[in-house]
């Protein structure tokens, strides 16, 4: 089962180069759907047996892995759907679409493999490969800014992740007195000897692993690459970067937390709380004054990874997982909707107004997603953020106060930007300029906007057309509708099976009660 | 002083010299050769540790290291360097003398840190590993051009390998192999990115990257 799970995207990596062009998109959808199917099947298997193994123990999926696999697979499927709309608008030609398709599948493959392998050395390699496979996707649109973002991404993250390698080596070193000179660097083995590891090297190892994988998770102060890469990547890829890449990087940390806890006591939790709070703090204030829609969303991801990390550190792993899952769904929705909006308006929020009238579905999706991502009740992120607040209250009230204030800052900063975009009066229509209908209705003043933004030409070509619900093409709105529905369902109730899976994951990470 | 310690002290000194040599020059070719020497010394050291410690896995690690770090990666780098437009020396923001000085300070810093951590037997390899890592980190952070930044990343990996061999000689071969595989992919990806930069922006200088802020 796990073999097939990995084989499907692997096959598509190769097939993308040889298939007839018209099969490319349908097959990507099939790959996405089957990846999602496998994720559900693996999760079901883990719920039945507690663990699912493959290749004689080389692959090992427990509750923690299954949760991460599920979040990755949902977004992989969503990005395949959303890419249909993206390519409908961008019209890049077959060779570039082939390279996109192959890289997309490769990126998905590496992300799916990370939580499956038991050997922590291999996990390290796979995390590094997720960077390398996504670098060209970040640079895909070829603008100088995109190249800049890709370069920063590769250099900063590679430096960071090599610290995680040093941490992994030190983890091995910490186990040498117990397990002898030669043993396998697999997490089940280390976990079973957790209390016997030597504390000195382990302390340093844990810190290096948090800094290393934390660079990739977007924890402050190692987050500098994140807003650039997430905003310059094509829409479907931004959703994957924010929605699931960050989770796979965090997985690298979460795997080591229960290994380090028995010997180090509260130390791992203190480190997690410190990085979580710092990320939340810096992200909350960086959200203010972000004119670029996707940068706004990127900083919001830094904020949410901070909250998730905080949740694990405070001993509320269940709510941290719940937050992770809901953040994935909500952020993917927001990036899909933002992708459609920016393909129509250009990337700068401060110039676009009145999205709700011009693109009702995209406007509603951004509004609901925005409310959800800022933790407004009764939407899906409220229960988990509240759960983490309660955990903070039990542990350290000052953390709870700080957390609450910062969430307020986030809400104001995020919603003030978003409401201007969604509700604001379209300036162009008032001015009565002889602009093309869509641009006027979106309130983008042609003299400001015209020709400066890439991709404008494609829209002017069909500017006379009546803007449809989802933006450029109805296909583009399918992913938005689906994720909006998923968000609303998760707001109303969390399926019992998912709750049980999150509980399994919580037990794997441990902490708290 | 035992034979083991004599060998590892010699190795430590010579790898630190190569790391400083990269910081002290602005010629791509000289930097590349310093890296080749560093990798060769690493491979030789790995072989010696294999003999002395009896971990036969390390013979394989030494061979593969020599091939990948000493030959394959430099060969790819040479192609990348040839594709760079025009010049054979890099633009700098800090003179080579100042970066050399900072490199020396980093080595002293590494010595202070390691002194508190390691036993006498582990000291030289750990010191050299940390020094090379820090020098690589500094190279990546301080040079505006893409090529030396890449070389800095590769030196970080070399330093970590030295730490691995010195500290945990029993680490199964698979872990060395995955790191080497990763290294090759890294060099290829960054090489292509540098190509893209030179073809789109007509420069290998990342100082032009100043558009994304805040």
Tell me the number of helical segments of chain B per DSSP (H or I, 4 or more residues long).
7
Number of strand elements of chain B? 0
Unreliable runs of chain B = none
Give the beta-strand count of chain A.
2
Give the number of domains of chain B: 1
Count of runs of 4 or more consecutive helical residues of chain A: 23
Global shape of chain B:
globular
* Poorly predicted residue ranges of chain A: 428-471
- Which word captures the global form of chain A? globular
Helix fraction of chain A by DSSP (H/I, runs of at least 4): over 70%
User: What order do the helices and strands of chain A follow?
Assistant: HHEEHHHHHHHHHHHHHHHHHHHHH
Oligomer: heterodimer
- Outline the biggest β-sheet of chain A: 2 strands, antiparallel
Beginning-to-end CA distance, first to last residue of chain A: 34 Å
| Alpha carbon gyration radius of chain B | 17 Å
Order of helices and strands of chain B: HHHHHHH
Strand content of chain B: under 5%
Main structural class of chain B? mainly alpha
What integer is the average pLDDT of chain B?
88
Q: Please describe the biggest sheet of chain B, giving its number of strands, its sense, and whether it closes into a barrel.
A: none
Characterise the protein shown here.
The complex is a heterodimer of chains A (513) and B (214). Chain A is built from 23 helices and two strands. With 513 residues, chain A is mostly helical. Chain A has a domain at 273-513. Chain A has a two-stranded antiparallel sheet. In chain A, helix 5 runs antiparallel to helix 6 and helix 9 packs antiparallel against helix 10. The longest helix of chain A has 36 residues, at 144-179. Chain A is globular. Residues 428-471 of chain A have low confidence and may be disordered. With 214 residues, chain B is an all-alpha fold. Chain B has one domain. Helix content of chain B is 77%, strand content 0%. Chain B is built from seven helices and no strands. Chain B has helices spanning 3-23, 28-53, 57-83, 96-115, 123-142, 146-167, 173-201. In chain B, helix 1 runs antiparallel to helix 2 (28-53), helix 1 (3-23) packs antiparallel against helix 4 and helix 3 (57-83) packs parallel to helix 7. The longest helix of chain B has 29 residues, at 173-201. Chain B is globular, with a radius of gyration of 17 Å. Chain B starts with a helix and ends in a 13-residue tail after the last helix. The model of chain B has no long low-confidence stretch (mean pLDDT 88). The interface between A and B is large, with 48 and 42 residues.
